[in-house]
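Reminder to self: tokens first, then the designed residues, so the page reads top to bottom the way the pipeline ran.
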């Protein structure tokens, strides 16, 4: 945990510097009052925390009874507590409740480049000692995506169901799930396309895949996980809206927090979507993807000791 927390702090450094430098600059001028709250609002918005979350924090802050001689560390502590309060409902562990005689189906969605395929590999690598896993390479138009999934399959000794380039993704899922059932797989990860250039096509494909999955396993997919690249900032909120229209998103995975100055977007997501955040990623290694913990994230974001 110590190594992970250290990486989280380092990964969020750009985000925390943006937030805390602005906070310190404001608070060294004057004590919290109506004028400073306006300046604090600007700092929070600049840190990608979003309008709704910022308004909530400012409102909470305005009702706090801080000592008139409160120093910066005390005010940072108060801000950290307010941020953690927003994040905490989204701290929900990812659980696998495998149906009897059927695999637990995880539908992975997200735009191309969000780290979706890599996330599949990392999660599978963490689960493979406990479960028999297979992959379905349903991003059929991108040969690179299939190859990347195969690399993870080879690395983790996990079977990959794939078709010819450009084949029907839903049909591939149908065949792959049938084979996974025959093989006695415990978990099946389905890697999907994320081409937002054609939103209608994306929605139609995901809807079709979901319908096909249900023909074989009526209560599947058991989890639909949306992978989001933290570096996209406020654009991630728009991605959530689009994918929620196309699929029943059950949880979020936030990647590429390391080196991003937009880590505050997670606070905006928590306030505006209330979706569970199951995992966050701050590096390339398998163990750099870890369950989301609101307390540690809030303190890393504000650099609160």
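Designed residues (305 positions):
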């Amino acid at each position: 945990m110590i190594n992970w927390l250290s990486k989280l702090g380092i990964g969020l450094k750009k985000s925390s510097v943006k937030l805390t430098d602005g906070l310190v600059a404001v608070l060294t001028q004057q004590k919290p009052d109506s004028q400073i709250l306006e300046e604090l609002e600007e700092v929070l918005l600049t840190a990608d925390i979003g309008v709704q979350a910022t308004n909530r924090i400012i409102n909470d802050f305005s009702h706090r009874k801080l000592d008139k001689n409160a120093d910066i560390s005390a005010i940072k502590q108060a801000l950290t507590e307010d941020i953690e309060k927003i994040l905490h409902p989204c701290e929900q562990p990812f659980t696998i409740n495998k149906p009897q005689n059927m695999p637990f189906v995880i539908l992975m969605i997200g735009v191309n480049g969000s780290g979706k395929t890599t996330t599949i590999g990392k999660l599978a690598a963490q689960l493979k000692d406990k479960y028999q896993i297979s992959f379905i390479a349903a991003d059929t138009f991108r040969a690179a995506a299939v190859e990347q999934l195969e690399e993870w399959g080879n690395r983790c000794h996990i079977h990959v169901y794939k078709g010819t380039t450009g084949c029907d993704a839903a049909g591939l899922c149908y065949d792959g799930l049938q084979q996974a059932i025959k093989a006695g797989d415990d978990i099946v990860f389905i890697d999907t396309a994320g081409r937002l250039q054609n939103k209608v096509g994306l929605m139609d494909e995901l809807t079709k895949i979901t319908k096909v999955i249900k023909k074989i396993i009526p209560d599947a997919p058991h989890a639909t996980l949306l992978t989001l690249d933290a570096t996209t900032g406020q654009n991630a909120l728009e991605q959530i809206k689009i994918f929620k229209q196309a699929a029943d998103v059950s949880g979020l995975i936030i990647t590429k927090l390391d080196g991003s100055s937009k880590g505050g977007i997670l606070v905006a997501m928590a306030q505006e979507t209330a979706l569970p955040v199951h995992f966050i990623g701050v590096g390339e290694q398998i163990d750099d993807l870890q369950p989301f913990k609101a307390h540690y994230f809030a303190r890393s974001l504000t650099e609160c000791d």
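The chain has twelve helices and eight strands.
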